[in-house]
Design brief:
six-stranded mixed β-sheet; alpha+beta; 64% helix; 10 helices
Length: 340
């Protein structure tokens, strides 16, 4: 998750099993309130539709949407707030306190708070302001008293902004936690890379020690002689293969190279993909193919190179007389020998 777009709702479990429990409790609570104390609004079709829309929206807001919530869903929630306010309030008595018959105020405030938790704080605030303005319009047009409409809703506004700013604070805290986790992950990845590099270096040193150790000890003891120079030359070539053509210096190829060099053939092994070596299973048929070609050489020199051609990894076998042959690792096929 991007540090700049930390999903507070997901961190608080508002899209998991706990969220479904919360949505279930919400639906049971407001179904009970509407049935027990809904009053005249719940005897109308508009009131029943408003209740259904509110419950559906509560379920929609705990689904695992992207963060922040998509615009169409936000628009739907605001539309439900507006419709439910009109559908319920216009059937209430415009004088006095309506009691639990105005259950929609609390229900809509909770929906807008869910918007705030899921990255739409200001849209949630707009929804509460819309609810308040519609209620003020209702009391103003029915009794001429705008203050009564404000008195019915200002507590919901205060509740929303208290909870909404808490959600903003949570987002800031969660962003700091995410930044720390991201830094820690980078540190662990760097340590793993260093450990991997160190392990690879140890493996390379151990390989060199096994290859060159006996010869170097022999030379150090004064045992080097002219007769051993060809053997030492072959050993030096093998060490070069491990450095310059590491991915190719595997399977039957080292033995084939040694045998060809012992016949006086000069062969260079080059790996241009050392930083991004192909998978071993792709290299194995190419290595076997190159070993077969080397075994057929009787004189001259050749170069075996692992590189990319047209974006695909290939092994190229080129001889000093200008003949080349390539093996594509992608489809395990080679092109016939041809003049360069």
């Amino acid at each position: 998750m991007s540090v700049a777009r930390v999903d507070i709702g997901r961190l608080l479990g508002l899209t998991g099993p706990g969220a479904w429990v919360l949505a279930g409790l919400y639906c049971v609570t407001y179904l009970t309130l509407a049935a027990w104390a809904g009053g005249p609004p719940m005897q109308t079709l508009e009131g029943k539709v408003a209740l259904a829309l509110i419950l559906v929206t509560a379920i929609l807001l705990v689904l695992p949407w992207r963060y922040p919530l998509p615009g169409p869903l936000v628009g739907w929630a605001l539309g439900v707030v507006g419709f439910s306010t009109v559908a319920i309030c216009w059937h209430l008595s415009p004088s006095g306190w309506p009691g639990w018959s105005s259950w929609n105020f609390g229900a809509d405030t909770f929906l807008m708070f869910m918007l705030a938790l899921r990255g739409r704080f200001w849209w949630g605030a707009i929804g509460l302001v819309l609810m308040s303005l519609l209620t003020i319009h209702w009391t103003l047009t029915t009794t001429g008293d705008w203050w009564h409409g404000f008195d019915l809703t200002y507590r919901q506004l205060a509740t929303y902004f208290a909870g909404g700013f808490f959600a903003l604070w949570l987002r800031r805290t969660a962003r700091q936690i995410a930044e720390f986790q991201e830094t820690e992950q980078r540190r662990i990845a760097a340590e793993q890379a260093r450990d991997s590099t160190a392990d690879e270096r140890r493996r390379q040193l151990e390989r060199v020690r096994l290859l060159a150790g006996p010869a170097l000890a022999q030379i150090a003891d004064g045992g080097g002689s002219v007769a051993l120079r060809p053997e030492h030359g072959l050993l030096e070539a093998e060490l070069r293969d491990q450095i310059r053509g590491r991915s190719l210096a595997a399977g039957p190829l080292p033995a084939a190279l040694r045998e060809a060099r012992s016949r006086g053939i000069e062969i260079a092994l080059l790996d241009d993909l050392r930083e991004e070596p192909p998978p071993v299973e792709l290299l194995e048929p190419a290595i076997a193919w190159a070993a077969t070609l080397i075994a057929k050489l009787r004189a001259g020199s050749a170069t075996i190179r692992l590189a990319r051609a047209d974006g695909e990894p290939v092994v190229t076998f080129a001889t000093a007389d200008g003949l080349t042959e390539t093996f594509s690792l992608s489809n395990a096929a080679h092109q016939p020998l041809r003049a360069s």
